[in-house]
Amino acid sequence: MDMPMPSGRNQEVEVITGVQRRRRWTPEQKLEWVRRTMEPGMSVSLVAREAGITASQLFQWRKAYTEGSLVAVGANEPVVPASELQEAMRRIKQLEAALGRKTLENEILKEAVDFAKSKKLDCALAAVAQGRPMRTVCSTLGVARSHLVAIHSRPADWTDRRTARNHRDDGPVLEDIRQVVHEQATYGYRRVWAVLRYQWGCRINHKTVYRVMRDHGLLLYRHGQRPVSTRKHDGKVAVDVSNQRWCSDGFEVACDNGERVRIAFALDCCDREVMSWVATTRGIDAGLVGDLMMQAVESRFGANQTAPAEIEWLSDNGSCYTAAETRSFARSLGLKPVTTPVHSPQSNGMAESFVKTIKRDYARLALRPDARTVIRQLHSWFEHYNTQHPHSALKYLPPRTFREKQALNN
Fold first, then answer.
1. Which parts form a coiled-coil structure per UniProt (predicted)?
2. CATH number listed for the domain at residues 245-409
3. Model pTM?
C-alpha cells in the first residue's frame, strides 16, 4: 500500500552516500553569515539552519568576529589570540617601566662621573643631595641605605671620635714594645703582643700594639706573596692530644767559614714541643735518627721506657727515615713509622713550619762563625722556643706552657 505524500511545498533532502571530508568555508562566507546574525529580526539559530551549519559553530565565528579574528583572516593578516595580545600589552608596560628605571640609573651614573675621584659613598651623598631617590641611588651604586641615611642625617659639626682619640699613654707601651723587638727582631706585632700579654702581664690589646708599631716604624717588612701550590693536601697533621703523633725533619745551618751543621729534631704534633734533637757536620744517618727517637721517648716517658701506646712517627722519605734499621728500631720503642707522599712537603707541614721559625727567629740572628759555635747555641734556641716563643696555634702560648695547662685540664 502506497503511503500518501504530505501536502505542502517540496523539501530538499541532502543524502550523503559516501565518506566525505570535513566541509570547509571561506572567510567571506563566514563573514556573511555572521553579519546576517546581526541584522534586525535574525538570530544565530535561524541563520545556522539556513546555512546548514550548527548553531555552536556560528556562535564561535561570531565571537571570533567580535575579537577581530575573522577580519584579520579576510585581510590575509596574522591572527593573534586575545590572551596573547593582553600578555603582550602587559609585557610592554613592564618594559616601559624598566626602561624608565634604567634611564634614571644612567643619569645617576653620569652625574657620579664628576665625583669619580671620591669614594663611592661620597658619590651617593652627592646624588641624594641633588634630589635623586635614595633607594635608587643605593641600589645603583651598591651602597647600604642604612649607612647612607646615617651619614646624610649627621649634623654639620659631627666629628669621628675614633680618629680623635688622645693617645697620651703610648709612652710606656712603646718602651715595652721596643724592648721586645730588641730581643726578638723577627717578631711581628702579634707575637710582640703575646709576649707583653702573657709573659709580661700587660693588659693590652693587639690592635694597640699594631698601631704603636705602625706609627713608630716597628712593623716587619711585608714580603711578596709566594705562589700558591696547585697540589691539594686534604690531610691534617695536627692532633688534639699529646703523644699521639710526632713529626721529624732535618735542616742545615750555614756557617761563616763554610761549614754546615745538619740538625734533625722530633716535634709533638699537638703541643709543638721540641722533645729531642741531634746535630752533626756530616750527614744524618739511621743511627742518629735512632738516637733521636730514643731521646724523644725518654723525654716523655722516662729512661729505659717505651711508649705506652703506639705513636705515629711522621717523616719524609729521606733514606735515614726509610732505612730498615730505623723502622725496626722505631717499632721496638712503640713508634709507628709513617712517611709522607713523594713531593708533598704539605703532608709534613708542621715540621716544615718549625724549620722556618728556627731559621728566621734564631739562626739568622745568631753568630755563626763555625760549626762548633752553632752547635753550642742549639740548646738555648730549642729551650727558648719551648719556654718563651709564642705559638699562634696554641693561643700564643709557648709549647711547654700549653702542655702544662693541657695536663691540668685533663
1. 85-112
2. 3.30.420.10
3. 0.56
